[in-house]
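call fold(seq) -> tokens
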Amino acid sequence: MFVRCFLITLWIALGFAASAEEPLAGLQLGSGQDLTIVMLHGDEGNGGDPLAYAAFGAEIARRLPMATVHMLLRPGYKDPWGRESPGNNYGRRDQYTLQSAALIAENLKRLKADTPLIAIGHSGGAAQLALAMSLENNLAEEAILVGCACDLELWKSMNPDWPKGTITRSVSAVTRPSPVIEHITLLVGDNDKTTPPVLSESYAWHLTTHGVSVDLQIVPGGDHRGNRALSSAWLAAVLNASQRLLTR
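ret:
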């Protein structure tokens, strides 16, 4: 276990970002040429390391050696190893802007190249990924949105104690054009107190009414941060998406 943790830490320290005109920093795990997987972290509003879930990305890379996994730092984020992405996250608050979504979309286009792409977002990363996919068609073949804050008006109504002006610049995915994509998987824990299932249900309805193929999974016992129940369902969703793309 010690050796595995040491290797993951070294991987984080030495990882590098994929290239783009305005490249988002992050880690590249694996070097498979048949599939590209891009992961976008959550808000980490309390100041935590946005790439703290690198072990999960490493497990995906281990399970899918034919894939290259890019764990990107979202716009304006930096990690303890000195990597920093361009853009502004406004102190990790109220940051789901179309400007940041455009940066993410540009990086998805450049990473996609000639391989099928699975785009994955967790929490705020899911919200920004949904916005990015509303800006341009076919940025990915499959998307997996975990604990998505995709309906901001509903989210605000569920949190009446939030200070006035908590969300002013952010754009809600349910108000945007639906993505042109082969399939979207929405995952949310039934015990998610941060982005409750109703937010994913709202976005699933938005997608379905616009003809998007969508699978909504409410995970029994799942929380928001990624306990065993949610992580297991998340990994299964990635493996299922990869199988669909590699066997079509």
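The chain has a mean pLDDT of 91.
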